[in-house]
Amino acid sequence: MSDKIKFKTQTAQFAYLDTETPTVHQETLSARSTRNLKLAADLTRRSPTRRTAAATNYYASPETPGDAKGAPTDSQIPLQTTHPMATPEELAAFIARHRTLLARERDAEIERSALLLSNCGPRLLEQKGLALLGLGVVSVNIGLGGKTLIELERPAAYHTSAVFPPHTIRPGDLARIEENGGTGTAKKPAKPKKADAAAAAAAEGVVYKVSPPSSTTTGTATERWREVTDTRITLALEPADDDAGLPERCRVVKLANSVTYDRMEKALDHLEKTVLPGAEKPPQEITPLIRVLLGLAAPSAPAPMGDIAFFDPSLNDSQKDAVRFALAAPEVACIHGPPGTGKTHTLIELIRQLTTPTPSNPRAQRVLVCGASNLAVDNILERLLALPGEKMRATRVGHPARVLGAAGVLDATLDAQAARSDQAALARDVKAELEATLATLSGKGKGKGKPPRGAERRKMWDEVKALRKEYRQREGGVVQAVLGASQVRPIPSPSPPLPLPLHRSRLMGVGQIVLATCHAAGGRQLRGAAFDVAIIDEATQALEAVCWIPVFKAAKLVLAGDPMQLPPTVLSLGKRKYEKRAAGEPVEDSEESEESEDDEWLVGDTMLAQDDPEPVPDLPTKTKATDAVAPAVEEECESLVGQDGAEPAPDPPRETAPAKDPKKDLKKNGSRLRPPRTLETTLFDRLARMHGACVKRMLTVQYRMHAQICAFPSAALYGARLAPDASAAGRLLRDLPDTAGDDDVLGAPVVFFDTAGCEYFERAEGDGDGGEGSRCNENEAGVVGRWVATLVANGVLPGQIAVITPYQAQVTLLAGLLRPLHGPALEIGTVDGMQGREKDAVVISLVRSNDKREVGFLREKRRLNVAMTRAKRSLCVVGDSSTVQHGGAFLAKWLAWLEAHADVRYAGEE
Predict the structure, then answer these.
(1) What is the mean pLDDT of residues 386-409?
(2) Tens digit of pLDDT for each residue in 778-810?
(3) Both ends of the chain: CA-CA distance in Å?
(4) How far is CA 81 from the centre of its chain?
């Protein structure tokens, strides 16, 4: 057997990776690494041309292999010739690094969850939104997969209100049902009994549904989640092997969710077996899509497209260009959607084009639509269901965020469609018998007598096990009928070549759309499914590993997102650095220098505004509103930096910068496949850096912000390419109905209340609901409160206003100050909670004000970008310029721009 076939690296130990104490996962990988690394080095020494001929032979297209010398033929999928291809050892390093980071992230989540559960009493857990206390069982039903669905509510006998307190428990979370007993306080948790622990271990499951009292709520999923009041929660429990009863009074506690990590690990296993040489599987199943994603081949030239008849005539030129590009791209397309540019609107048009036979698309395609969150998926589903004309065939797999929020979403779930299918009758009788037996066991059956005991109870549990098995078998046929997974249809000859797995498991259901979160796409219902196209919304908020789950099910991939907004939430960015940022503490200069390197590595922070040295064709002409604003902003953003201690201007573009150090120059070569430094490096980021403009299109017209609100983020983050539509460019608060009064209030698009010199100093909130080490600023909160009162006095409704701040302690302070005056319609929240949303008037409280001029994670430009791009008509910023302007180049530019263009008011003169 050749050395190349023997080679199969699975190690996580590389010289340039972290040298922290390895986890159990890392130790397992390390134990198998020595021989493989030696073999990799040996292969490297023997193959001086390994990056060309050797790699080309192995990774050549399976349909049209290269010639005898290894050179690709004309009919091959074009391989990348402008930069070196990845070697097997580089692929192994890439996968191993992902394993290391995922293991660390899993450990961090488990550690945080265990720390909270062990040190916090039930009441404090409920205050933090991690538990719901004093619940009672409403019903016990059977769901897909034979899982037991336990529905819980707050009984009237123990609570004055049936509405749950604020909580963070969402569908898809892992949770545990415990006995409600125990009187642990917020400071001293109660010690659970042994019996309680046994019962808790037998009652862990996934949150299936969180329900409001009725289905009358309206609005999109993104808007609705903040408006509904939850009264019931349903958990899906795996069938227990023994008789485990539920207590009369119980509580639900949120746990660390390992299911997502398990599925990401499986995706990495699949990737490793697919791309690394080995005897277990021949290499020809590496699809064109996977080759492009890993840099083993350059993206193929776009397929020729005829004239496209767009379903939505309101699409602008950049949206149409993005749709054309995504339709024509053979392997991958990235749609960069800055704030307010109609990214979801564009995806809806793309889905309609893909699933509807047209002259340019003669064969309707099957589409898998995924998102980083349930809310993103539900938002797309609602818009698809609301389209005029013929109803689209859409199936929602997984856990919708609010299935009772809109009747259409409930009807589109796999459960509901399976219940309505012709084959459902085969399983309905078994399900009814199973539910009746479970109700009897819980004492809630006919007659509602006492639950059976002893031998009778054991006999009934044996019946339950037999019924579950029969139900699963019958239900499998129902699910296959809904999703079409049992039927295979030949691929018409005019269709482009598809990877071998798709030939084998081609699904019926012409034009069918399946929607799920990225990790739910790896569930049992979609096992073995194959699609023509996978679309991932919010791809810049999803870990790369979770994106590989839908990748393996599709022949083509479309990613949509904005790398200049918040990245994925990563708990394990380095404990010390993460804890400092969470507490709002300053980051040391050495740490910030590492972050500057991350800007080069991560791409999302800096690249997309500068990565195209050549002009991009086919851009729509800027509107008149931005012709006057954007050039001036661009010039001032450059000229104002360097004043008052700001950072110097950036280095020249890497294309013209001299390569002093070959290793450093190699590191900056974005075309190389490199292991990620952190999990914040998303697949979208990496592809944009690896392949550049040939895989992405940017939406350039935004419909949200006034031209002046849009001006700074456009110039500083989007290369001055983001322009407001005429419908948004000039709108102000005074254009709203029922507003009247001071034009200085209603006619100013950007207002800056500068607290410099007022001694409005911040303070650290050491404990309490605000969270350990969070920051608040009482005097600044007073300025915010007076401005909100002024807006309301001039006719702006509280529901049209949002107050945003980076710190949870300030959110708590502002809520206590403003909610009694303006009611719950006034939205108050953190930056993270506002991503993807908008309001007519937005007030930002920056909080930081201190003699040391420390700004903490306020320096993160993506976080600030989210905050400053939520406003439609009015943006008000409250902060201390003497502190904030010393937080780095981006903050210095922003403060300088505010002083030059905003309506500046000094807080001490109010």
Answers:
(1) 71
(2) 999 999 999 999 999 999 999 999 999 999 899
(3) 82
(4) 33
